[in-house]
Amino acid sequence: QIHGTMRVILEPLIGDMPLIGALSLFFLRKPLLEINWTGLTNLLDVPGLNGLSDTIILDIISNYLVLPNRITVPLVSEVQIAQLRFPIPKGVLRIHFIEAQDLEGKDTYLKGIVKGKSDPYGIIRVGNQIFQSKVIKENLNPKWNEVYEALVYEHPGQELEIELFDEDPDKDDFLGSLMIDLIEVEKERLLDEWFTLDEVSKGKLHLKLEWLTLMPTADNLDKVLTSIRADKDQANDGLSSALLILYLDSARNLPVSYVLMGTLLS
Q1: Of the candidates 214, 158, 202, 197, the residue with the CA atom closest to the CA atom of residue 28
Q2: How far apart, in whole angstroms, are the C-alpha atoms of residue 152 and residue 107?
Q3: Is the distance from CB of 66 to CB of 128 less than 8 angstroms?
Q4: What is the Cα–Cα distance from 106 to 104, expressed in whole angstroms?
Q5: In this structure, what DSSP letter does residue 56 have?
Q6: Residues of CATH 2.60.40.150 domain(s) within the chain?
Q7: What CATH code is assigned to 91-231?
Q8: SS3 assignment, position 63
Q9: Separation CA 259–CA 80 (nearest Å)
């Protein structure tokens, strides 16, 4: 079973039958997957292999069906399929992953008698785009001060998903999560708030979220570059000033590569 939110887009509208030029479908975020391997090979019952197979299948689904990936089926021959399959993003979300407060202490000592701190880090998702913050050792009030930029293709519908974890040698402990509707961010253009973490008893996360609109010309480029120079220390690889979209359509007359197979004799 697959559980998720799938969007189906019927466009463009045309004047003749079938009235719709193409059909596009995709998941707004990575779906949940439930597989019952009963009756299949016993190999999949080996501890670790079952979860591994589910992860591989989910990755395949994401590579084809989670935004920005999509399946587009043309219904008439005149449709420009490339424009539907690779649309221009609606905007760019700049995520300032700043700090957290009052996180749960997950590390324990003396067989659980003494409660310690945590080594928190964050996983940030927008569709199929995933970012992971650095780990702050032994701190329940960590400061990351990291910046990420994600392309937003569909709104309403797409959300910013954040999960916090405590890094451990075996399995990382859950420290809370957030789900933020990007419609609110686009409306406000800038949000700088403390958010209460969900699914845990305590903890807050400080985020600054910026909605950046794509402009068709470079008229405001100098202004954007000036602003970025003032904030250049906020991101490890620098902040973006423009977006280049490259669509690789096809190739012809490529050279043929040969692989020689041989037998080694001892």
Answers
A1: 158
A2: 36
A3: yes
A4: 6
A5: H
A6: 91-231
A7: 2.60.40.150
A8: helix
A9: 38
β-strand 159-166 against 91-101: which pairing, if any?
Answer: unpaired
> Hey, is 235 helix, strand or coil?
coil
In tens, the pLDDT along 218-248 reads 888 888 888 777 665 555 557 888 888 887 7
Question: What letter would DSSP give residue 225?
Answer: H
**Helix, coil or strand: residue 124:** strand
Residues 1-56: tens digit of each pLDDT: 888 888 898 988 888 888 888 899 988 888 888 776 665 555 555 555 555 567 78
Q: At which residue do the structure tokens 């009756």 appear?
A: 39
Q: Which residues lie below 8 Å from residue 234, measured CB to CB, with a gap of 6+?
A: 96, 145, 147
How far is residue 6's CA from residue 29's CA, in Å, rounded to a whole number? Answer: 8
| Cβ atoms 116, 58 nearer than 8 A | no
Tokens of 86: 């690779």
**Would you give the DSSP letter of residue 229?**
H
Distance CA 106, CA 120 (A): 10
